[in-house]
Amino acid sequence: MAFMTKAWQGQEAFAVEGFDHLEFYVGNAKQAAHYYRAAFGFEPYAYCGPETGVRDYVSYVLRQNRVFVVLTTPLSSNHRISAWLASHGDSVHDIALAVKDPRAAFAECLRRGGQEAYAPRELRDENGTVTVAGIRTYGETIHTFIDRSGYRGLWAPGFVELRLPPVPRQETGLVAIDHVVGNVEVGAMDRWAGYYRSAFGFMTFVEFDENDISTRYSALKSKVVRSKNWRVKMPLNEPARGLRKSQIEEYLEFNEGPGVQHVALLSSDIVKTIGALRANGVEFLPVPDAYYEDLARRVGAIDEDLALLQRHGILVDRDEEGYLLQLFTKPVEDRPTFFFEIIQRKGALGFGQGNFQALFESIEREQARRGNL
Ligand code: FE2
Q1: pLDDT digit string, tens, across residues 59-110
Q2: From 46, 111, 120, 335, which residue has the greatest number of CB atoms within 10 Å?
Q3: Distance between Cα 22 and ligand 1 center (Å)
Q4: Is 171-370 in the same CATH topology as 16-161?
Q5: Cα(92)–Cα(179) distance, rounded to whole angstroms?
Q6: 342: CA distance to ligand 1 center in Å?
Q7: Residue 211 CB contacts under 8 Å (≥ 6 apart), including other chains
Q8: What is the reported pLDDT for 132?
Q9: Which fold is adopted by the domain 171-370?
Q10: Ligand 1: centre distance to CA 77 (Å)
Q11: From the CB of residue 103, how many other CB atoms can be counted at a distance below 10 Å?
């Protein structure tokens, strides 16, 4: 199989156009929808449930610019989603990808070694057709292939407009999904990167292992797979031996297996976005002041005012193509598992790997000042 993987690297037999939406399985979609609206600035979009003839679950679709999020909750303990929730908690179940012909993409993906999640089907109503098919990936995560070009309705057949009373909050300016990161078991990263290369025709374009200094600090190995058009970028992490206990190990323990670690949402004005998210009550990982002491030397000239970045706790990293600004939320549920990243790209194609080292070094500097190192 190895030679086939190589031959197919980067040769998409089906064009992946981009992220379509993310479906989260959650324990209480009604309350989760309120959180995503009030904290992250999403708008109500579409709904299905008992009122629309769906007997066993509800789905709330929320929208912000090009980001679509579906929050789904089962209505009984014997629903298959209830078992999923019992093991993983609230988390991403489906990273849905837009393709032209899901039926053909599904067949080709299976031929290349992709694993079936569910068979292709056409969903129809008076507004047209949405075609979907499901492929499995790491853990109990799936990719729906979806084509909604033949549909004139709001979201998909069976959904009605979601109307909810207004929620006071600040606009956050989140534009699109930048990347989706998966955590997999020790030793499984290469297998999953190979899966995306062979079954999807994706390319591997960045990797880090134990020999990278940034990785010694963050205790993870990482490979990034991407679609040909660069719209879908998916880093895959596995735990590595590092200077401290791997956060990936902690994730795998509390998520009870592999799954989506974080989703990075793109902003075109990160200072404004972070200010609004903080005002809405979103909690971010704290950044020590010492991080900013050597920032100018590390990243060189940037457009933003460093004092303003420090005030908002925004991180900066530079690669060959440019730089990026980013910040990570705390986990958005009680298990130390799934979180969000907010990112603004100024040419950089990377994922902020330099920030691992810079963050940990600045934490050590502060420890040293307190005499604890
Ligand atoms: Fe990221």
Answers
A1: 999 999 999 999 999 999 999 999 999 999 999 999 999 999 999 999 999 9
A2: 46
A3: 16
A4: yes
A5: 13
A6: 8
A7: none
A8: 98
A9: 2,3-Dihydroxybiphenyl 1,2-Dioxygenase; domain 1 (3.10.180)
A10: 34
A11: 17
Residue 53 Cα to ligand 1 middle (Å): 38
Span from the CA of 349 to the centroid of ligand 1 (angstroms) = 11
Q: How far is the CA of 171 from the centre of ligand 1 (A)?
A: 22
User: CB atoms < 10 A from the CB of 11, how many?
Assistant: 12
pLDDT tens-digit series, residues 167-219:
999 999 999 999 999 999 999 999 999 999 999 999 998 777 767 766 677 77
pLDDT tens for 135-173 read 999 999 999 999 999 999 999 999 999 999 999 999 999
Domain boundaries, the chain: 16-161, 171-370
CATH class of 16-161: alpha beta
Report strand pairing: 16-25 vs 67-74: parallel
Q: How confident is the model at residue 10 (pLDDT cuts 50, 70, 90)?
A: low
Closest CA to 192 of 236, 250, 133, 136: 236
